[in-house]
Design goal:
The protein is of the alpha+beta class. The chain has four domains: 105 residues, no CATH class; 76 residues, Immunoglobulins (Immunoglobulin-like, Sandwich), CATH 2.60.40; 72 residues, Sandwich (Immunoglobulin-like); 66 residues, no CATH class. Helix content is 17%, strand content 37%. The protein is built from five helices and 23 strands. The strands form five sheets. Strands 10, 12, 13, 16, 17, 18, 20 and 22 form an eight-stranded mixed sheet that branches. It has a five-stranded mixed sheet with strand order 3-9-8-5-6. It has a four-stranded antiparallel sheet with strand order 1-23-19-21. Helix 2 packs antiparallel against helix 3 and helix 2 packs antiparallel against helix 5. It starts with 5 loop residues before the first strand and ends with a helix.
Length: 362
């Protein structure tokens, strides 16, 4: 999925209380998109080492599909050559997207540039019968792209029309089974109606759009002082699982690890607190995203695709993990722990890409 997340930046300075500008600064640096109809602005051809590949979560062998590439600034990146496993490479056009036909690849489609890789599950045939109603998460971030999966879509991203509360959204990636959509720039937190039109069919779905923000410790912390950083949800009163990553541990330390999952308390003040300690004065950068609902079957399929690529001493463990997910689809903690352990030592490879996709699914 990887899935791409919002970044928050703030300045920590001793003796200076948090400013009311803090929240607006965070919101302004979430995802800097501009252009017509909420589309990400295009940037000059991006260096391959600074991009993120966006694939639809599922593709169909022999079907058409669209991928996108985002630069480090979050903008669509034209002119980036993406290598596709068992497929000809594709170079993004002036819109930052690439259109291609999927060749059979044995369970998963792999895409990569020099410093990024992504995977999508591959189905051998499109679903039989009438088009399935699209499935959309009940809560999505208005600053992140999200997936809509079902059937009956077009693999040409521009042939699918998606509107959120009446405003056109950008379809970044597409296949007959899934779309990856970016909410329009004018979207606001709160209830949302999503309409999808493609190939003469139309569906209506509902969700909630939320914005994530941070409230810095107030007063500001001195070096070595401890305090609490609040993660705030706007647009939903439901308790949410939020994954927060500390990108500057040399400045601000999370007391329970620099990759931390918190659960907001729900209600009108829908927040969660993270225990932190100031290390020194300077900039700190945080990354926050809503944890998606576990997709156990997707994780199992990624593990099955990874097993033949695994080092010999790990192959049996990967097969056992896949079997465990099939038998105990609701007991995910052992699989998460084991995948984290293996990923900590796995070098960049197709095997690691598939394991990363499996871990992101649960």
């Amino acid at each position: 999925m990887l899935r791409r997340s919002s970044y928050f930046h703030a300045k920590h300075r001793p003796h200076v209380p948090a400013s009311p500008l803090f929240a607006s600064l965070l919101a302004a640096t979430l995802f800097l998109f501009a252009g017509a109809a909420g589309a990400p602005a295009q940037t000059a051809p991006a260096a391959a080492s600074r991009v993120t590949i966006v694939l639809p979560p599922r593709v169909v062998a022999g079907g058409r599909a669209t991928l996108a590439v985002l630069g480090a600034d979050g903008k669509l990146a034209p002119g980036v050559a993406v290598e596709l496993e068992n497929n000809p490479s594709v170079t993004t056009d002036r819109t930052g997207r690439g259109f291609f036909q999927v060749s059979p690849s044995g369970g998963a489609l792999l895409a990569k540039v020099s410093a990024d890789s992504a995977a999508a599950l591959e189905d051998l045939a499109p679903p039989v019968g009438a088009a399935q109603a699209p499935a959309i998460a009940p809560v999505i971030s208005l600053r992140d792209y999200f997936s809509i999966c079902g059937s009956g879509f077009s693999g040409d991203a521009d042939a699918n029309r998606v509107n959120i509360n009446g405003a056109p959204a950008l379809v970044l990636a597409a296949s007959p089974e899934c779309l990856v959509v970016l909410p329009p720039a004018e979207a606001a937190p709160g209830p949302a109606t999503i309409s999808i039109e493609t190939a003469g069919q139309k569906w209506i779905a509902t969700t909630s759009l939320v914005a994530l923000a941070f409230d810095a410790p107030n007063p500001a912390l001195l070096p070595d002082q401890k305090g609490r950083l609040a993660v705030r949800v706007m647009g939903s009163e439901a308790p949410l699982h939020i994954v927060v990553e500390n990108k500057a541990p040399g400045v601000l330390r999370f007391m329970r690890g620099d990759d931390q999952e918190v659960v907001t308390r729900g209600g009108a003040q829908n927040i969660a607190a993270i225990a932190v300690q100031a290390i020194r004065s300077g900039d700190f950068s945080l990354r926050a995203r809503i944890r998606p609902r576990p997709e156990t079957e997707a994780a199992r399929r990624y593990l099955e695709a990874a097993a033949p690529l695994a080092p010999e001493d790990l192959r049996r463990q990967i097969q056992k993990l896949a079997g465990r997910l099939a038998r105990y689809p609701h007991d995910l903690r052992p699989a998460r722990r084991k995948l984290d352990e293996i990923l900590a030592a796995a070098p960049a490879s197709d095997f690691r890409t598939l394991l990363t996709a499996a871990r992101a699914s649960i």
